[in-house]
């Protein structure tokens, strides 16, 4: 729905409102025409139902208005004496059209000074719940949204199991484009597992003013541009999603609009200079670690390496023992000598399980092991006398990965060797030919809504021959700090400005053991708090500092202060 269509839609809504309520306006002592003027009719209606004028604002905020409309319908009915439970359900289930019946078929009387206090405890409870949902949805949609890190693409900068608060107001809150959706859920209804929204009608893209622009190296939450996934981890037919209902991703912005970006031997270069990451960034790469006597798992654990595999050998394994190992093993294999190889993640197999099942296991540590390492980890290994060498795993130039952007044989790129590539800026114009087109085809067709056709060497956009294109919005290049284990812009290309959600600002909780050995979310009782990460900021200089103890002190002071104030208030009332 474009701007013109939305204006027409709003005018239709105003006509529907006028036709269904003008007689009620008259019975409330107002003029019929006051029901017809947009915005003004809402202000008058608030006076009629004896509710504050600021409610009008809630009626024009997408998503919030879906919650407020039923409230206003019910309040309108009660202002004319229609208080029965059946009529309340009738106006809600008819999407407000029951008011037409009241307006034309009933001889109702306006109750000017009706009591606004609920008549029962249930009514008071329902009223409180409704406005709690309205307030929470307003905050969630336009100010702060909670978010959890489920994958290791930013490991160790942001850890799996970090629970974040994401600011919507830093870059300016993106107004919802999907107008009919369940509040405070994303694309799927909990428990039911069905879609939580209707694809139509859609609002045009609009962003409230923010107080800062996205800067290079900032961590950003955005709607995954390539998302057509109905349910993750299941092979199903893809679905077309509205922008604001695409899955949320979090990455580091390494390229801004107008930049020229290149990846050389795994490192990012922007405008010809190697990207300097902030000191809190912990980029990781895959390395091969070599040691003549075997690379010790204990050594890798000591320096904090995660994500590496361990291999255990046993001569035999009963079904009972295999069942006991199912929560820890990620694979089994029968070796040529008849032994059973058991593969696990870095946590291995707990000693109590080994003893309880009377397992006879031997860990095999090969002379060469692959591990994902930060620079500090690489330095620690190279200093260890037992390690012979540590070498980064790199794909050579001109070895094409067919799954990477732009998925075209003219660009033999891979995760370690890519570019140079221009990141589009709003208003900038690029020359178009068949060689360049694959880089921007998705932008022109999908993100900016044009048609493209190619005939011979001729490119047509919206039916017209084109040898250049001018971009309608800004684009960004997002990458994970876990360079060899991140699906990012190297896979699906640019992130449009209208896909930007917000800026992570705070880690309010963090848990180890968030995922099990197979990458699934663990049961909550298996989570282990990372106390040093709770209440830490995401951006900033120096090592993150936990403000958890200060929060506890402030919380204790609040409760003590509230108790003292209530005690004094009760004493004063007795006097």
Q: What does this protein look like?
A:
With 575 residues, this protein is α+β, with helices and mostly antiparallel strands. Helix content is 29%, strand content 20%. The protein is built from 14 helices and 25 strands. The chain has helices spanning 3-27, 40-48, 55-59, 64-79, 85-93, 98-105, 121-142, 297-302, 319-325, 351-356, 375-383, 437-447, 489-492, 548-574, and strands at residues 144-148, 162-167, 219-223, 248-255, 260-264, 267-270, 273-274, 285-290, 310-314, 329-334, 340-344, 362-364, 368-373, 389-392, 418-422, 429-431, 452-455, 458-461, 464-465, 468-470, 475-479, 495-496, 500-512, 528-529, 536-537. The strands form six sheets. Strands 1, 2, 3, 4, 21, 22, 23, 24 and 25 form a nine-stranded antiparallel sheet that branches. It has a four-stranded antiparallel sheet with strand order 7-6-5-15, with no helix packed on it. A hairpin with a 2-residue loop joins β18 (458-461) and β19 (464-465). The model has no long low-confidence stretch (mean pLDDT 88).
């Amino acid at each position: 729905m474009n701007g013109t269509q939305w204006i027409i839609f709003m005018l239709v809504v105003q006509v529907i409102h006028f036709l269904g309520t003008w007689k009620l306006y008259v019975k409330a002592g107002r003029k019929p025409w006051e029901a017809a003027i947009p915005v003004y009719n809402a202000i008058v209606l608030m006076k009629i139902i004896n509710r504050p004028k600021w409610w009008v604002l809630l009626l024009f905020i997408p998503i919030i208005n879906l919650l407020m409309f039923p409230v206003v319908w019910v309040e309108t009915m009660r202002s004319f004496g229609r208080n029965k439970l059946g009529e309340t359900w009738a106006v809600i289930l008819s999407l407000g059209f029951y008011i037409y019946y009241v307006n034309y078929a009933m001889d109702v009387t306006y109750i000017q000074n009706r009591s606004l206090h609920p008549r029962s405890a249930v009514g008071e409870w329902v009223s409180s719940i409704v406005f709690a949902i309205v307030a929470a949805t307003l905050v969630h949609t336009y100010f702060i949204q909670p978010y959890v890190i489920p994958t290791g693409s930013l490991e160790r900068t942001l850890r799996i199991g970090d629970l974040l608060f994401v600011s919507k107001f830093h870059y300016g809150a993106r107004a919802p484009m999907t107008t009919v959706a369940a509040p405070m859920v994303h694309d799927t209804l909990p428990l039911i597992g069905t879609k939580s929204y209707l694809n139509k009608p859609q609002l045009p893209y609009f962003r409230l003013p923010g107080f800062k622009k996205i800067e290079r190296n900032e961590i950003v939450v955005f709607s995954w541009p390539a998302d057509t996934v109905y349910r993750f981890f299941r092979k199903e037919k893809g679905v077309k999603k509205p922008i604001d209902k695409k899955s949320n991703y979090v990455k580091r912005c390494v390229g801004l609009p107008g930049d020229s970006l290149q990846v050389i031997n795994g490192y990012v270069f922007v405008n010809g200079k190697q990207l300097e990451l902030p000191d809190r960034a912990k980029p990781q790469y895959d390395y091969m670690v070599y040691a003549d006597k075997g690379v010790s798992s204990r050594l890798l654990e000591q320096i904090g390496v995660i994500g590496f595999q361990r291999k255990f050998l046993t001569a035999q394994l009963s079904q009972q023992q295999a069942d006991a190992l199912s929560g820890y093993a990620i694979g089994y294999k029968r070796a040529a000598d008849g032994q059973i190889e058991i593969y696990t993640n870095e946590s291995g197999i707990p000693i109590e399980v080994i003893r309880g099942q009377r397992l006879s296991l031997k860990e095999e540590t090969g002379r060469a092991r692959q591990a994902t390492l930060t620079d500090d980890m690489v330095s620690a290994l190279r200093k260890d006398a037992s390690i012979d060498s540590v070498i980064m795993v790199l794909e050579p130039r001109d070895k094409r990965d067919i799954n990477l952007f732009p998925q075209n044989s003219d660009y033999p790129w891979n995760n370690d060797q890519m570019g140079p590539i221009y990141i589009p800026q709003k208003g900038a114009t690029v020359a178009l030919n068949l060689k360049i087109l694959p880089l921007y085809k998705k932008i022109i067709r999908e993100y900016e809504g044009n048609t493209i056709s190619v005939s011979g060497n001729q490119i047509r956009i919206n039916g017209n021959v084109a040898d250049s294109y001018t971009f309608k919005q800004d684009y960004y290049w997002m990458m994970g700090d876990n360079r060899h284990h991140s699906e990012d812009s190297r896979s699906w290309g640019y992130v449009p400005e209208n896909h930007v959600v917000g800026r992570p600002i705070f880690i309010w909780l963090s848990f180890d053991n968030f995922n099990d050995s197979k990458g699934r979310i663990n049961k909550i009782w298996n989570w282990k708090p990372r106390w040093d990460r709770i209440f830490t900021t995401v951006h900033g200089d120096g090592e993150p500092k936990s403000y958890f103890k200060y929060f506890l002190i402030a919380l204790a002071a609040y409760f003590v202060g509230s108790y003292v104030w209530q005690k004094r208030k009760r004493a004063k009332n007795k006097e």
